[in-house]
Model the fold of this input.
Amino acid sequence: SQQGEEDPQALSIQEGENATMNCSYKTSINNLQWYRQNSGRGLVHLILIRSNEREKHSGRLRVTLDTSKKSSSLLITASRAADTASYFCATGLIPGGSYIPTFGRGTSLIVHP
Amino acid sequence: SQTIHQWPATLVQPVGSPLSLECTVEGTSNPNLYWYRQAAGRGLQLLFYSVGIGQISSEVPQNLSASRPQDRQFILSSKKLLLSDSGFYLCACLGQLHGYTFGSGTRLTVV
Done:
Protein backbone atom coordinates (compact mmCIF):
# COMPACT_ATOMS: atom_id res chain seq x y z
CA SER A 1 0.00 0.00 0.00
CA GLN A 2 1.17 3.52 -0.61
CA GLN A 3 2.41 5.66 2.22
CA GLY A 4 2.83 9.34 2.87
CA GLU A 5 6.29 10.26 4.11
CA GLU A 6 6.80 13.54 5.90
CA ASP A 7 9.92 15.65 5.79
CA PRO A 8 11.63 16.87 7.91
CA GLN A 9 11.21 14.44 10.78
CA ALA A 10 11.71 17.27 13.24
CA LEU A 11 11.43 21.02 13.00
CA SER A 12 12.23 23.59 15.66
CA ILE A 13 11.33 27.26 15.15
CA GLN A 14 10.62 30.44 17.06
CA GLU A 15 7.15 31.78 17.63
CA GLY A 16 6.08 34.02 14.77
CA GLU A 17 8.10 32.17 12.15
CA ASN A 18 6.57 30.08 9.41
CA ALA A 19 6.78 26.28 9.48
CA THR A 20 6.85 24.23 6.31
CA MET A 21 6.44 20.47 6.23
CA ASN A 22 6.52 18.26 3.19
CA CYS A 23 4.90 14.98 2.29
CA SER A 24 5.76 12.61 -0.53
CA TYR A 25 3.76 9.65 -1.68
CA LYS A 26 4.22 6.86 -4.15
CA THR A 27 1.17 6.24 -6.28
CA SER A 28 -1.85 8.07 -7.64
CA ILE A 29 -4.22 9.52 -5.09
CA ASN A 30 -7.69 10.98 -5.03
CA ASN A 31 -6.97 13.22 -2.08
CA LEU A 32 -4.38 13.96 0.57
CA GLN A 33 -5.02 14.93 4.15
CA TRP A 34 -3.03 16.55 6.90
CA TYR A 35 -3.48 15.76 10.57
CA ARG A 36 -2.14 17.10 13.81
CA GLN A 37 -1.37 15.04 16.90
CA ASN A 38 -0.64 16.52 20.28
CA SER A 39 1.50 14.33 22.50
CA GLY A 40 -0.40 11.30 23.74
CA ARG A 41 -3.61 12.21 21.96
CA GLY A 42 -5.53 11.17 18.89
CA LEU A 43 -5.09 12.76 15.49
CA VAL A 44 -7.12 15.77 14.50
CA HIS A 45 -8.02 16.32 10.87
CA LEU A 46 -6.69 19.67 9.63
CA ILE A 47 -7.31 19.89 5.94
CA LEU A 48 -8.04 17.76 2.89
CA ILE A 49 -6.91 18.63 -0.62
CA ARG A 50 -8.26 16.80 -3.63
CA SER A 51 -6.15 15.61 -6.51
CA ASN A 52 -7.61 18.26 -8.84
CA GLU A 53 -6.72 21.07 -6.44
CA ARG A 54 -3.31 22.72 -6.26
CA GLU A 55 -3.65 24.88 -3.18
CA LYS A 56 -5.98 25.20 -0.25
CA HIS A 57 -6.15 27.54 2.71
CA SER A 58 -7.63 27.23 6.17
CA GLY A 59 -6.84 29.99 8.62
CA ARG A 60 -3.06 30.03 9.11
CA LEU A 61 -2.68 26.80 7.17
CA ARG A 62 -1.80 26.58 3.52
CA VAL A 63 -1.57 23.26 1.74
CA THR A 64 -0.21 22.70 -1.75
CA LEU A 65 -0.36 19.60 -3.86
CA ASP A 66 1.81 18.73 -6.83
CA THR A 67 0.55 15.48 -8.30
CA SER A 68 3.29 15.45 -10.94
CA LYS A 69 5.89 15.30 -8.19
CA LYS A 70 3.68 13.28 -5.87
CA SER A 71 4.24 15.72 -3.08
CA SER A 72 2.38 18.09 -0.79
CA SER A 73 3.42 20.77 1.62
CA LEU A 74 1.82 22.19 4.74
CA LEU A 75 2.68 25.75 5.67
CA ILE A 76 1.79 27.15 9.07
CA THR A 77 2.17 30.90 9.07
CA ALA A 78 2.92 33.05 12.11
CA SER A 79 3.43 29.99 14.28
CA ARG A 80 2.45 29.90 17.92
CA ALA A 81 3.71 27.82 20.82
CA ALA A 82 0.35 26.03 20.73
CA ASP A 83 1.19 24.73 17.24
CA THR A 84 3.74 22.42 18.85
CA ALA A 85 2.64 18.93 17.80
CA SER A 86 3.33 16.18 15.31
CA TYR A 87 1.93 16.58 11.84
CA PHE A 88 1.01 13.70 9.57
CA CYS A 89 -0.07 13.40 5.99
CA ALA A 90 -2.32 10.62 4.82
CA THR A 91 -3.32 9.34 1.45
CA GLY A 92 -6.28 7.15 0.73
CA LEU A 93 -6.78 4.16 -1.48
CA ILE A 94 -9.95 2.80 -2.91
CA PRO A 95 -9.18 -0.83 -3.67
CA GLY A 96 -12.41 -2.70 -4.21
CA GLY A 97 -14.43 0.16 -2.78
CA SER A 98 -12.69 0.29 0.59
CA TYR A 99 -11.02 3.47 1.66
CA ILE A 100 -7.79 2.81 3.51
CA PRO A 101 -5.70 5.73 4.75
CA THR A 102 -1.98 5.23 5.18
CA PHE A 103 0.13 7.57 7.26
CA GLY A 104 3.75 8.59 7.31
CA ARG A 105 5.89 8.90 10.44
CA GLY A 106 5.09 12.54 10.90
CA THR A 107 6.97 15.78 11.39
CA SER A 108 7.53 16.78 14.99
CA LEU A 109 7.18 20.56 15.22
CA ILE A 110 8.38 22.51 18.23
CA VAL A 111 7.56 26.20 18.41
CA HIS A 112 9.57 28.05 21.03
CA PRO A 113 7.84 30.98 22.72
CA SER B 1 -20.31 15.16 12.64
CA GLN B 2 -19.19 11.90 14.12
CA THR B 3 -17.63 11.37 17.53
CA ILE B 4 -15.51 8.42 18.59
CA HIS B 5 -15.39 7.15 22.13
CA GLN B 6 -12.43 5.01 22.98
CA TRP B 7 -11.53 3.50 26.33
CA PRO B 8 -9.66 3.02 28.51
CA ALA B 9 -7.18 5.88 28.10
CA THR B 10 -4.34 3.92 29.68
CA LEU B 11 -3.88 0.28 30.43
CA VAL B 12 -1.10 -1.72 32.03
CA GLN B 13 -1.37 -5.44 31.49
CA PRO B 14 0.95 -8.37 32.27
CA VAL B 15 2.35 -10.54 29.52
CA GLY B 16 0.00 -13.38 28.70
CA SER B 17 -3.13 -11.60 29.87
CA PRO B 18 -6.10 -10.95 27.55
CA LEU B 19 -6.98 -7.60 26.04
CA SER B 20 -10.19 -5.90 25.01
CA LEU B 21 -10.27 -2.33 23.75
CA GLU B 22 -13.57 -0.87 22.73
CA CYS B 23 -14.44 1.88 20.31
CA THR B 24 -17.90 3.27 19.68
CA VAL B 25 -19.02 5.84 17.14
CA GLU B 26 -21.78 8.43 17.35
CA GLY B 27 -23.25 10.65 14.70
CA THR B 28 -23.07 8.34 11.72
CA SER B 29 -24.29 4.98 10.53
CA ASN B 30 -22.53 2.18 8.68
CA PRO B 31 -19.13 3.83 9.07
CA ASN B 32 -15.79 2.48 7.90
CA LEU B 33 -13.83 1.82 11.09
CA TYR B 34 -10.12 1.37 11.63
CA TRP B 35 -7.72 0.31 14.36
CA TYR B 36 -4.20 1.74 14.26
CA ARG B 37 -1.18 1.22 16.46
CA GLN B 38 1.48 3.85 16.97
CA ALA B 39 4.84 2.97 18.47
CA ALA B 40 6.72 5.72 20.32
CA GLY B 41 7.94 8.35 17.86
CA ARG B 42 6.64 6.39 14.91
CA GLY B 43 3.85 6.61 12.39
CA LEU B 44 0.53 4.85 12.46
CA GLN B 45 0.35 1.21 11.52
CA LEU B 46 -3.03 0.07 10.25
CA LEU B 47 -4.05 -3.10 12.06
CA PHE B 48 -7.65 -3.76 11.05
CA TYR B 49 -10.45 -2.10 9.17
CA SER B 50 -14.13 -2.85 8.84
CA VAL B 51 -16.66 -1.72 6.27
CA GLY B 52 -19.64 -3.27 8.04
CA ILE B 53 -20.96 -5.51 10.81
CA GLY B 54 -18.99 -8.73 11.00
CA GLN B 55 -16.62 -7.63 8.22
CA ILE B 56 -13.01 -7.41 9.34
CA SER B 57 -9.91 -7.05 7.22
CA SER B 58 -6.49 -7.55 8.72
CA GLU B 59 -3.54 -5.63 7.39
CA VAL B 60 -0.76 -7.24 9.39
CA PRO B 61 -0.46 -10.73 10.88
CA GLN B 62 -0.14 -10.35 14.63
CA ASN B 63 -1.25 -11.37 18.07
CA LEU B 64 -4.40 -9.29 17.84
CA SER B 65 -7.90 -9.72 16.48
CA ALA B 66 -10.81 -7.39 15.86
CA SER B 67 -14.56 -7.75 15.86
CA ARG B 68 -17.50 -5.59 14.91
CA PRO B 69 -20.55 -6.93 16.70
CA GLN B 70 -22.65 -3.82 16.06
CA ASP B 71 -22.70 -1.13 13.40
CA ARG B 72 -20.98 1.45 15.56
CA GLN B 73 -18.85 -0.76 17.79
CA PHE B 74 -15.35 -1.94 16.99
CA ILE B 75 -13.37 -4.11 19.41
CA LEU B 76 -9.68 -4.94 19.45
CA SER B 77 -8.74 -8.09 21.34
CA SER B 78 -5.94 -10.41 22.23
CA LYS B 79 -6.02 -13.74 24.02
CA LYS B 80 -2.44 -13.44 25.29
CA LEU B 81 -0.55 -10.18 25.22
CA LEU B 82 3.10 -9.96 24.24
CA LEU B 83 5.59 -7.28 25.27
CA SER B 84 5.65 -6.17 21.63
CA ASP B 85 1.94 -5.34 21.81
CA SER B 86 2.74 -2.24 23.84
CA GLY B 87 1.87 0.95 22.05
CA PHE B 88 -0.71 3.64 21.48
CA TYR B 89 -3.89 2.28 19.92
CA LEU B 90 -6.18 4.53 17.95
CA CYS B 91 -9.64 3.92 16.58
CA ALA B 92 -10.75 5.95 13.59
CA CYS B 93 -13.85 6.46 11.52
CA LEU B 94 -14.08 7.61 7.92
CA GLY B 95 -16.03 10.84 7.58
CA GLN B 96 -18.36 11.83 4.79
CA LEU B 97 -15.79 14.14 3.21
CA HIS B 98 -13.09 11.46 3.34
CA GLY B 99 -11.38 12.93 6.36
CA TYR B 100 -10.95 10.75 9.41
CA THR B 101 -12.13 11.21 12.96
CA PHE B 102 -9.92 9.64 15.60
CA GLY B 103 -10.58 8.57 19.13
CA SER B 104 -8.39 9.85 21.92
CA GLY B 105 -6.38 6.64 22.00
CA THR B 106 -5.42 3.96 24.51
CA ARG B 107 -1.87 3.71 25.74
CA LEU B 108 -1.18 0.05 26.39
CA THR B 109 1.86 -1.03 28.37
CA VAL B 110 2.52 -4.73 28.58
CA VAL B 111 4.79 -5.62 31.51
Notes: DSSP finds no helices and eleven strands in chain B. The mean pLDDT of chain B is 91.
